[in-house]
Design a protein that fits this description.
The chain is globular. A four-stranded antiparallel β-sheet has the order 1-2-3-4, covered by helices on one side. The chain contains two helices and four strands. It has 86 residues and is α+β, with helices and mostly antiparallel strands. The longest helix is centred in the N-terminal third of the chain and has 17 residues. Keywords: Signal.
């Protein structure tokens, strides 16, 4: 019984672990295709990219429609800042 409960919980909780926003310092890519794929894997759907103050700004939203601005260093592809728009 306990074995089945542990297995069921691990199957239910595993997808939630895969959908965490990127952190500052994570390298997600220097081009739109790589950054879009990395952000989608992290659970953030990209709506658009903009250039802002020498950074690439990715405007995206999660499954709960919470909006974020993810700033990316264009040389390294590393996330430099994440802002919640809500």
């Amino acid at each position: 019984m306990t074995k089945h409960l542990v297995l069921a919980l691990s199957l239910v909780l595993t997808p939630a672990i895969g959908f965490a926003m990127p952190s500052v310092g994570d390298v997600i890519g220097t081009n739109p295709e790589d950054a879009t794929a990395a952000l989608a894997t992290a659970g953030c759907t990209v709506d658009e990219f903009e250039a802002e103050d020498g950074q690439i700004e990715a405007k995206c939203h999660d499954e709960a429609s919470k909006r974020y601005e993810v700033y990316i260093d264009p040389a390294s592809g590393a996330v430099t800042k994440i802002k919640s728009e809500d």
